[in-house]
Design a protein that fits this description.
The chain contains 13 helices and 8 strands. It is of the alpha/beta class. Strands 3-2-1-4-5-6-7-8 form an 8-stranded mixed β-sheet, sandwiched between helices. Helix 3 runs parallel beside helix 4 (103-113), helix 6 (168-194) crosses helix 10 and helix 12 (296-303) packs across helix 13 (305-312). 27% of the residues are buried.
Length: 328
């Protein structure tokens, strides 16, 4: 018997997350009922055919008085309208679990429009193709109490995941950096390339993996992009200021044409990424080479032995007979 057997829930938004949560829960809970709604009817049809929901809803308020839990998996900008729609129909006992991007906005809207309901936020740190066995950030709102906390504990357990407690600002700052900032940066890169006269001639030849990689963040649903930016703009402004500051530093390095400094920053960011991938704090200085990325033999596998000597600084940079540093 599953942890949600004999329960009735509604899932608003049947994209990848909502769809897979419903499908996983129904596999483990034979006596569970899952209502599903999405503004795109074809998504509801596919979800019903794939056993990701038990019943298609006609609107947000359809069957809302029957469900014990509502899971929101929609763009944040849609949540205010949803809360307004269900406000006069929802039971005070119904718990709302929010999987949207911007938690501070949802918390405030819930407090204003659904003051008698328990609302709690979660965020999936998906690491693969499955909704199972992932870490889940759990964010408490003003209206979060014991019942909603227990419901999230059961949900994360049923999805074979691990719970991580986050606060509102911590979560939204993370989302601003990892979700919205790449969209803004990719949009800016696309804009400046489109404004280049030469780009109009050669862009057709650059429609390759490199172009797809740098432009991929703006390949998301435009509604999601708008929602991520518009509901988190204050934190985004702070990240943009920091980003501009970093760009200015790099600009000055390029203007000074300091190969040593440029090599240092390239090597450091490469190592920092490796550390993060391996769950090592980049700011941690143990005095040891935790990541062997700067050792000459490792670097040489990727960028050649002479370049490796330059990046690792393990040897003197070769000089010509006049004493000038040789170019790599």
């Amino acid at each position: 018997m599953g942890k949600f057997d004999n329960k009735t829930i509604s899932i608003y938004g049947l994209g990848s997350i909502g769809f897979n949560i419903g499908q996983s829960l129904l596999k483990k809970n034979e006596k569970m009922i899952v209502h599903g709604f999405d503004i795109k009817e074809e998504k509801m049809t596919i979800a019903k055919q794939s056993n990701a929901i038990s019943k298609q809803m006609k609107s947000y308020i359809d069957s809302v008085n029957e469900c014990e839990i509502i899971i929101l998996s929609v763009p944040t900008s849609s949540v205010y309208e949803i809360f307004e729609s269900i406000g006069n129909h929802i039971s005070e006992k119904t718990i709302i679990i929010d999987i949207c991007s911007s938690k501070r906005a949802v918390s405030e809207w819930a407090n204003d429009l659904l003051p008698n309901n328990e609302v709690i936020g979660i965020y999936p740190f998906i690491t693969g193709d499955s909704i199972l066995s992932n870490n889940w950030g759990v964010i408490s709102y003003k209206s979060t109490k014991n019942n909603s906390t227990e419901s999230v504990n059961l949900l994360v357990s049923e999805l074979e995941g691990m719970k991580i407690n986050l606060d509102l600002a911590e979560h939204d700052s993370y989302i601003a950096l990892t979700e919205a900032m790449p969209m803004i940066i990719a949009s800016s890169l696309l804009s400046i390339s489109n404004d280049s006269s030469s780009w109009k001639e050669v862009y057709k030849y650059f429609n390759n993996d490199d172009f797809k990689m740098f432009s991929s963040p703006i390949g998301n649903d435009p509604i999601k992009i708008f929602s991520s930016i518009s509901t988190n703009n204050d934190l985004l402004l702070e990240w943009i200021k920091l980003y501009i500051s970093e760009l200015v530093k790099i600009q000055k390095l390029l203007e000074s044409n300091s190969e040593e400094d440029i090599a240092s920053i390239v090597n450091k960011t490469w190592e920092d990424r490796l550390k993060l991938i391996n769950n090592i704090d980049p700011g941690l200085d143990t005095g040891e080479n935790i990541i062997p990325s700067s050792s000459e033999n490792i670097l040489s596998l990727f960028i050649g032995s002479r370049a490796a000597r330059f990046f690792s600084k393990s040897k003197e940079i070769d000089k010509d007979k006049y004493g000038f540093e040789k170019r790599i």
